[in-house]
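Schema walk-through. Below, the input block comes first and the output block second. Nothing else is stored per chain. Lengths vary across the set, and this one has 412 residues.
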Amino acid sequence: MKSFNIEKIRKDFPILNQDVNDNTFVYLDSAATTQKPISVLDSIEKYNKSSNANIHRGAYALSIRATEMYDSARKKVKDFINAPYVESIIFTKNTTEALNLVAFSYALENVSRGDEILVLISEHHSNILPWQMVARKNNAKLKYIYLNDDYTIDMKDFKSKVTENTKIVTVAHISNVLGTINPIKEIIDYAHEKGAITIIDGAQAAPHTQVDIKKLNPDFYVFSGHKMLGPMGIGVLYGRRELLEKMSPFLSGGDMIEYVEEQSSTFAELPHKFEAGTQNVEAAVGLKRAIEYLEDVGLENIKKHEMKLTEYALKKMKEIPYITIYGTEDIDKRSSVISFNIDDVHPHDVATILDSYGIAIRAGHHCAQPLMKYLKINSTCRASFYIYNTLEEVDIFIEGLKNVRKWLGYGS
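--- output ---
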């Protein structure tokens, strides 16, 4: 078991070493994007200083080296999620693009009139809007899975809604609002048993827990680099090779072709068929280094650290009578995301007041308006913890929460 040294880890993140509004900076918005360790920043800088070139197109040393670095990043991703084939790893610019790729290249060609697409009500808009588009264009039906009273997925509701017409089941591995860890293995197995394909949004899972594609057996799994210590501008789509091979390209242009004639073209083999144009090589390099950093620390260590922070924060928040928490109380079924509201105070005001104390949280609907409507609220505050947060920062956060209503003149 690798050791976990929070003091050493925090030294790797220079952005944390600053004051905001004359207070110690406390960053609690890692569910939106994570900060980057020095090693990731250095890897990108080193690439740009010594290896920057367009890939797959040059016979000279820099291009060959850049190509090797890009391909090495793909291999690292494949190993990180234990995918069966490196050709099944497609680089995109983010999770949103990966989901849209599946919607346009797979769903539009395989979902017909009367077919059904099943989506969890707590999904991010990026895992709702593409399926609305498919349903609208192909006259299919979009159906929703709802939640239990404890904010976990209602598996009875899920199973009752899977029919012979269900072609796609798509859910998040972990909710970006509720923090719920969904039982995706059970969901995937049941969907497959009924003949549906599965699409898993892993944006909130890949940074925090070991994803094992061979064990989970999803048809598609997607996530982003910037939520796991990597740079913005790179995402990952894993797809079953036999499905990817049958799918049409999402984008067309340079580097994804085999041969082009005046009236027709043939396309490159996987994964290049889905990577048209100049790729974000420096982001791939940064993503590889981010994965190496996570592996060096150990995902199991990271998860234990996050759960310690989350359990402590939940305990302290429950002691404040005017705070409502949205999410299961079962610590084993939730991640380090905590959504909450303070009575009589708008979430944006909460976030603004906390910012005056140097505390960064998120406020709004978190790209999950159907969930907000389902919960009969307009928005929430959201705090999210990661590898570099501390118990002392949780204490600062709690004191900030206690001051919010005082700041607005409500008293204690």
